From TrEMBL, chain A:
It comes from Paralvinella palmiformis. One of its GO terms (molecular function) is (R)-2-hydroxyglutarate dehydrogenase activity. Its EC number is 1.1.99.39. Its cofactor is FAD. The lineage of its organism: Eukaryota, Metazoa, Spiralia, Lophotrochozoa, Annelida. It is an enzyme of class 1 (oxidoreductase). This is D-2-hydroxyglutarate dehydrogenase, mitochondrial. It catalyses: (R)-malate + A = oxaloacetate + AH2.
TrEMBL record, chain B:
One of its GO terms (cellular component) is mitochondrial matrix. Heterodimer composed of ETFA and ETFB. Identified in a complex that contains ETFA, ETFB and ETFRF1. Interacts with ACADM. Heterodimer of an alpha and a beta subunit. Its main location: mitochondrion. GO terms for molecular function: electron transfer activity. It comes from Paralvinella palmiformis. This is Electron transfer flavoprotein subunit beta.
Amino acid sequence: MMAFRKWQHSIHLSFPQLMRSGSQTQIRSVSPRCCIVPVHRMSFTTASGPKCKGTQPELTSKKHAKLKRGNFARLSGKHVDHFQSLLGSASQVLTEDLDGYNTDWMNIMRVSKILRYCNDQKLAVVPQGGNTGLVGGSVPVFDEIILSLQLMDKVISIDQMAGVMVCQAGCILEKLDEQLADYNLMMPLDLGSKGSCHIGGNVSTNAGGIRLLRYGSLHGSVLGVEAVKADGEIIDCLSSLRKDNTGYDVKQLFIGSEGTLGVVTAVSILCPQRPKNVSLALLACSTFDDVLSSLKEARNQLQEILSAFEVFDNDSMMSNQTNLKLMNPLKEHNFYIVVETSGSNQSHDEEKLNAFLETVMGSEIINDGIITTEPSKIRILWGLREKITEGLLHDGYCYKYDVSLPLAHYYRLVEDMRVRLGDRATRVVGYGHVGDGNLHLNVTAPAYSAELHSLIEPFIYEYVAKLRGSISAEHGLGFIKSKYIHHSKSPQAVVLMKQLKKLMDPNGILNPYKTLPHTD
Amino acid sequence: MSLRVLVGVKRVIDYAVKVRVKPDKTGVVTDGVKHSMNPFDEIAIEEAVRMKEKNIVKEIIAVSCGPQQCQETIRTALAMGADRGIHVEVAGKEYEAMQPFHVSKILAKLAQEEKVDIVLVGKQAIDDDCNQTGQMTAALLDWSQACFASKVEKTDGELTVTREIDGGLEVIKVKLPAVITSDLRLNEPRYATLPNIMKAKKKPMAKKTAADLGVDLTPRHEVLSVEDPPVREAGIKVETVEDLVGKLKQSGVI
């Protein structure tokens, strides 16, 4: 029978099987902790994995003592029995790949039945994908049931001619990209957690990443969504059409609503052509103005072949060197830029890239740089940018912020924060998708400190709000940032959001306490 | 005592690329596939450049045998710090059939022509994993050889080389002239930076053929077929120790 831990009654429904709580294989899902540091599996291999040094983060329900648990039912034996009967043989520990799973249509029916039951019984549910989110949106706060879609990982179809792939929500992003390679296609998004994150989660959070500059946001590249509402009703908008202006585009409601309006179960996505030629340049600048000049020059000369433009500062590079023992291929400089081009013709791309490099080196906007088309070197150089997040965790505790700002103020925020925090912080780093005006500001310290936290927030949110920026460019609001929504959205907009939530999930069982501010 | 070094650099399929076998099983697909310098040869060039920076070496010549595109590989070596390049052009069927036996003859001839003191190559190439060229070159030249070098020091007229061997590390002294093959831990190669890439465009690159060097490229091997390794089958999990023993007995392992 089920054995529940005393301090929480959360059980993990590893779809379509039931997980014994306390089982070693799924510890992360049973914990209701919501910590600011993302303690999650990442796609990189290092000698020591990402750690949260020092004490374990406090249980969310303790840390946010004022937060009241919603008026939901408590999980009991009769609920568990019902789930077991719904799912069939559920008494064994989850094993992978051994049992033959039923076909896809059966799975979506099961999601529907589970949600209908939860809705009837007023049981709260947290939909979960790869659990790589950075704002606590994918873990329970109290004792919500986790609905993991990791077993719904089938690719349903790939249409090479149209460039459209249809797949289930539990597919891992990197694996999808690998499969698409055989068809000369690629996924339109790429992010550091690609080895662990699920496409369902990506869509639910409208994930951004390093290629948004070129391929746009998921609001554009997702052609269809199949989702299940809180009451179990299946909304099938799984079209593969590029153009379909028939009525309201309701699939957009599920993109970026962080699992609060429905559970995404399948996705149809437009996949770009896989480039025949990819070039990567790592360039070094002395000032941030030089970074912006390079961006302008890149847009001007590289135009349609530009596929990524990222920046990271010297503090980020030093973290890589100290914490991850990565080599800096260039000498010490204040800023490093990663410029990637993707195209169909090597000599055409090379010509454009050489012209660009000649301009920026000639006018001394760039002090030094490396350029390569070798896949092995490209991987290593991208690693310098993508592994920053992981390296920072080694400092102890990391406060992570993700903001959108007008470019002129992009780095000023980092400098102002550094001055404000002084010695209290180990490191204040700034890096990110400068091509999209998206800054990732991280502050590290040996351990969590409420004092340091209070110095950072709400200062950073007020700073961003004054500049009419976004307090969460791509990470979403989740649990941590929902209360700051007013810094970036008007009150009327928030009212409309709450009305939509009430319409689609009257009992509020889907991912409660997240995204929209709590109504206490 | 300023030495001259000949470094062999091979153009191979980049190690991050997924290699595919040709449908006719005669080899692997190379058309349109990204190539780069053999990683062990990068280490060899890096070592030569470091020796030059320490004034042990006064000139570095980078050589590559193969089709036109090998010039890119040589240019990379020049951008890393080599002084001049030699491209021994071998193309088509002759290139496909070329083996370490032929390359070592070419390197030996060039070493004599260019009057170098050291021949530095990677210990093996990542496409064929032969680990033969360095040793054969030394034998043809009747020079000392120090293979799998993880450290090279110059002491008087000799080299003290630390070698990586099965049992651990072996330190040997070799008289010059010598052939050295580089192992992974010898150094971490630098990247070719933009200013150096510009400079490298002006460095001299000579072109020769195997015939110029009096080397016969007739193959000594015939490749019968190239196939993918067998797909790894899934294992099975058993519930108890008794089951495990039973299955092992069944499969005849015990």
